Amino acid sequence: KQWYQRRVRAAVQATVTGIVASTATCIDAMAERERYWQEKYNAEHEKAKKLEILYSATNRENTELIKSNIPQGPLLNEDEFFDAIEETLEKMDSLDKNLENLQITKKDATAAVGEKADHRMYNQMQELINKYIELSKQDPEKDASWQVLSKSGETK
Q: Going along the chain, which residue ranges are E strands?
């Protein structure tokens, strides 16, 4: 019986020794891997710090450049400013008058067309007019049928 117990004890001791050795090897491998990743992290952290410093310096330089390029004082003197305002107001008045004239002309044309609606060619003429209006709204660059007419020079 003692002999059996010694063999069991030797087997357990060998097993435990093997487990301890394997565990020690795993712990060493994990520690090595941890050191590797820590070094990689530190290197990336240093790169990030350098980039942050460069970014701050560049941002500061750009801000200073922008501030130095802003002209000081007014761009127009007082007379030029009021002349520009007056000219713009005159253009707006002119555009308003043209718009009123167009609206009056449109009302007159609509009234005249309404009187002639009973003419025998009215429907055909109205179709042609609508067709030409649609054609005039088309973009010459996009529509192939207009490209020949819109290009200057020789017709190809």
A: none
